[in-house]
């Protein structure tokens, strides 16, 4: 199965060119297919270097960029996109959000900052929101328990799966953290 979405019977508008940059292949492919069904001409990239190669050939009208990519930073990529095409409407996606990165994303020119797993409806609402207006809130936002769980998982990942270091950084007891990590993700 190819990583690039296949052309569908739905005609695409050249003004609806969309670049999706995410290192999570299943998510990237799923979002790409969903956006193609909405009439976008989708191009997929796994990381910063692949996105740069695409940007040398064409500048998209829209972009959806993951904040943390294996080979670089999504905010820097949004800056590059805007250097190439100033009117590109870019959305930053992240599995680990905080106010500092949200502010940095907006300063870089992102029109919105969405938590993963964002669905195609949320992404399209953000991309098409009138300038200066926020899109409608998502129909099914993550629960507070899910946001907490995602945050713990991200810190755990950044600490190279070291339970003691993660617990120290989160200010929680190591055994409490072990119990949380042993459970499934809340809905």
UniProtKB/TrEMBL annotation:
InterPro entries: ActR_PrrA_rreg, Bact_response_regulator, CheY-like_superfamily, HTH_Fis, Sig_transdc_resp-reg_receiver. Pfam families: HTH_8, Response_reg. Residues 17-131 form the Response regulatory domain. The keyword Glycoprotein does not apply. One of its GO terms (biological process) is phosphorelay signal transduction system. Keywords: Phosphoprotein. One of its GO terms (molecular function) is sequence-specific DNA binding. CDD domains: REC_RegA-like. The keyword Phosphoprotein applies. The modification 4-aspartylphosphate is found at residue 66. This is Two-component system response regulator. It comes from Aquisalinus flavus.
């Amino acid at each position: 199965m190819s990583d690039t979405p296949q052309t569908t019977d739905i005609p695409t508008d050249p003004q609806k060119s969309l670049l999706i940059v995410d290192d999570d292949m299943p998510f990237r492919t799923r979002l790409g297919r969903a956006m193609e069904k909405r009439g976008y001409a989708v191009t997929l990239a796994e990381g910063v270097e692949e996105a740069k190669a695409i940007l040398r050939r064409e500048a998209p009208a829209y972009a959806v960029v993951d904040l943390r990519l294996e080979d670089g930073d999504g905010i820097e990529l949004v800056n590059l996109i805007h250097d190439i095409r100033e009117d590109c409407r870019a959305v930053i996606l992240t599995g680990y959000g905080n106010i500092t990165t949200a502010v940095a994303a907006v300063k870089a020119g992102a029109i919105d900052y969405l938590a993963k797993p964002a669905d195609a409806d949320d992404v399209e609402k953000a991309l098409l929101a009138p300038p200066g207006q926020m899109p409608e809130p998502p129909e099914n936002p993550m629960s507070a328990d899910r946001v907490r769980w995602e945050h713990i998982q991200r810190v755990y990942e950044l600490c190279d799966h070291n339970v003691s270091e993660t617990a120290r950084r989160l200010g929680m007891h190591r055994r409490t953290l072990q119990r949380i990590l042993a459970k499934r993700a809340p809905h």
